[in-house]
Amino acid sequence: xxxxxxxxxxxxxxxxxxxxxxxxxxxxxKSLMDCEVIGYKFGYRGLYTNDxxxxxxxxxxxxxxxxxxxxxxxNKDNLFNYTVEENGVMIQKDVSDIAIENMKKADVHALVxxxxxxxxxxxxxxARKGVNVIGVPKTIDNDLSATEITFGFDxxxxxxxxxxxxxHTTAESHHRVLIVEVMGRSAGWIALHAxxxxxxDVILIPEIEYSLQGxxxxxxxxxxxxxxxxxxxxxxxxxxKEGGASIGRIVEDSPDAIRFGGIAQKIAHQLEPLVExxxxxxxxxxxxxxxxxxxxxxxxxxxYGVKAAEMIRDGHFGTMVTLRDNTMGFVPLEEVVxxxxxxxxxxxxxxxxxxxxxxxxxxxxxGISFADE
Length: 373
Ligand code: F6P
Fold this sequence. Notes:
- A 7-stranded mixed β-sheet has the order 3-2-1-6-7-14-15, with helices on both faces. Strands 9-10-8-13 form a 4-stranded parallel β-sheet, sandwiched between helices.
- Helices cover 35% and strands 21% of the residues.
- The radius of gyration is 22 Å and the shape is elongated.
- It is of the alpha/beta class.
- Bound molecules: 6-O-phosphono-beta-D-fructofuranose.
- Residues 13, 75, 139-141, 183-185, 236, 259-260, 289, 344-345 line the site of 6-O-phosphono-beta-D-fructofuranose (F6P).
């Protein structure tokens, strides 16, 4: 009897933990069902171009700890609205049937898709066309409401915390205000967690509009306490009461085209005339998604990977793996995706920080300002 074949792809941006899910899934598919596994490269693009590699003990050896994805990532390849050239003209077209044909030719029994809202929306659409699909949610932003915690978040928080610590020593030496911009899009989870863990003095998140005066007040208050330096952690998508959010760039061929960016520089520029200190900024950028995966994320990814394999074994297709009440489970993809684009943020609706929630209260009780008063 021929072995069942399972395919994996990693869509959207990379997140630490993707390789750990691949590593675990390959081994669990073997031990639970004696399946063969292949991996399509560059997300859905590989499904269309039929570009895949064998995934086995040997090809996945030594990847558990590594960030990125050995299958590579792409957040621009929605096969239901794909850019192709026809008669010398670039047009948008549904090429999903070609992908399905490729999977049939490769004898793929089930497809496991690791990604955010856009990737999982396509997963749902493939499920509607009869493909046996299982989704595994990923994003460093931790903004998916369908699951308690996504892999990659803990690693990003550790990196940001570590860097806030580094900024402390230099800010203190120069008596500067240092503003550090972190990822998260419209969710402030990374800034909030790393800001608390790294002892930021001000945390600015999209869920709580800030005012410049609020930052000035904190800088001055610290001075009266003998602390002539201040660390501000700001989410890239934070919004100023007086001026809104800061758009960094538009990635035209990405369906979720808006990239936030530039807020730290903007605040530094506006703040400097209002305080006595020199004000500098620092953008952590993709460093937050790079390097090795944290121990917590490796364990979390392993749990996601094994659960996905169990779901294949039990035939729970058209679903996404979840973690709720610290228990692995699953929900129908139909319930968790909504966007219909390739944005990578919000499976099941965005999970954002509650401005009156416990963590904000904890931060405030610690004396951290949100510059909102
Ligand atoms: O959603 C994850 C994320 O890292 C966001 O925090 C960030 O805004 C975005 O992706 C950056 O995307 P890209 O790497 O495509 O610029």
